[in-house]
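haha ok so turns out i had the wrong file open the whole time. this is the CORRECT one, sorry everyone. sequence first:
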Amino acid sequence: MKFSLKPITALLGLLGLTLALPPKVTYDGVKVVRVDVGDSADEVAALKALVENLNLALWTDEITKNTHVDLEVPKYQYSAFIKATEDLGLQVSVMHEDLGAAIRAENENPGKGSNPGIMEAAAAAADITFFNNYHPYSEHLTFLKKLVARYPTRAEIITAGNSAQGRPITGIHIFGGAGKGNRPAIIFHGTVHAREWITTMVNQYFAYYLLTNYASNPQIKAYVDKYDFYIFPVVNPDGFVYTQTTQRLWRKNRVKNSGSSCVGIDINRNWAFKWEIPGGASTDPCSETYKGRSPGDTPEFKALSSFQNALAARSVGAKLFIDWHAYSQLFMSPYGYSCTVKAADNTELVALAQGYANAARVPYGTTYQAGPICTTIYQATGSSVDYSYDVSKIKYSFTTELRDTGAYGFVLPASQIMPTAVESWAGLKYLLDNMK
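then structure:
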């Protein structure tokens, strides 16, 4: 029998009540701190135990030697946390004194306007003012559709499939004089991890820049005539919407995990290549890096991999894949699953990654580090980059961590959207000019 909530909703309405929705997570009073970690295995183990005992949310995927860990500490736990770290001899610095206040200030961009009416108008106009602020998911879709409406002979809306909650994974396909699908593919993924909002904006900037400069800039025209660009600004729409409605720092998708009350799988630990290797992901459904029950069991993986494999299988193939992330200012090549196994094209890929980093530094002096994933940041199994390189056979497969290095972290002010986009374009331009 089909059950309907309508009669109950109507009754509650008469009583002046509403159905309870998930409460919006407040971060008021939460501090974000950075803990420096030395080369002692005992120190690492003690910090892991402390984080687990206090149930602290990590901003850094792994706790490893000779690096740092960024994490949230609620106000009521801060004294105990500081005492414990002092007893362990760990150095702690504060990134955000009040995360709730930082989130409220995130979309402020002095002199640019940030009220909903202005933001909605910017999306509808599909002009450069769109990049003054972060936007609701619906406005991202509007922006893409308006771009296509303005340039119907150069672009179309595409979908790779559906998310766990049934949302289309929507992107934009940009093509040149040869028509649709007749040139090697360049594929970009943004907002794989839902809280990394800057990646959404940077990918949409690429689409905007290519289309608005095609007719007037011979170099841009040459890029678009040489390649077909498939840009997916938000490949995790369920998680992205959840960060906007309920929990700003949510990371994973929103799939329900059988046998657990914890929701979500890390899409970038679920790709069906070296998924089974230990150490680069978690088997705990409550972990931020939970890899799923089996390789490639997320709807997002199935949709995205099928889409890119179909492109790669064509006679013109796929030339470049980039999975855009934040934060840490890195540009990386395969592999993530191993720190000792080198990609067959490692020398060329690392050189290109370094070239990207050098070019990205030119506009504003922003420093990016370059190298293979595992030795540059940490081990990551089941990643899209390793899959794209080894399974899809896309030679030029990379991932990046955009701004910044921890001053703001995931809560990057809107005033940094355009500088991040400009320096990312400078790095991308280097790749387009130097891939063989």
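The first helix runs from residue 6 to 14.
again sry for the mixup
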